[in-house]
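Duplicate of #3305? Posting structure anyway:
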């Protein structure tokens, strides 16, 4: 009975992983997510204003609101980390997480296929 339980448990874990992968790929395929993550990973640390300028100047998105949604989405997926610097003026810095860097490496490998 233990073997069938662990098999069922493994199957469920596999389904959960596939579902998580589909959700991640779906989110990363939204306009601007990949490019913004790539920018933050390359810079290693970027102020919100730098991300905004990069995305708008390169025609990745058309509005500040969209950049905000992208940055929030990447943060919620734990691909970038948001840090508020409590100085004058108050600044927000974004850095890639280990998960974000790892994902970017894998996505670049996929580009080479």
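Output from current build:
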């Amino acid at each position: 009975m233990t073997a069938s339980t662990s098999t069922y448990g493994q199957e469920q874990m596999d389904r959960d992983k596939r579902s998580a992968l589909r959700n991640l790929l779906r989110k990363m395929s939204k306009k601007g997510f990949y490019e913004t993550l790539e920018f933050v990973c390359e810079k290693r640390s970027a102020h919100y204003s730098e991300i905004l300028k990069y995305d708008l100047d390169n025609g990745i998105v058309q509005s500040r609101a969209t950049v905000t949604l992208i940055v929030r989405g990447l943060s919620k997926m734990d691909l970038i980390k948001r840090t508020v610097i409590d100085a004058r003026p108050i600044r927000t810095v974004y850095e890639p997480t280990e998960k974000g860097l790892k994902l970017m490496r894998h996505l670049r490998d996929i580009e080479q296929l």
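Confirmed duplicate; merging threads. The radius of gyration is 18 Å. The chain has a mean pLDDT of 90.
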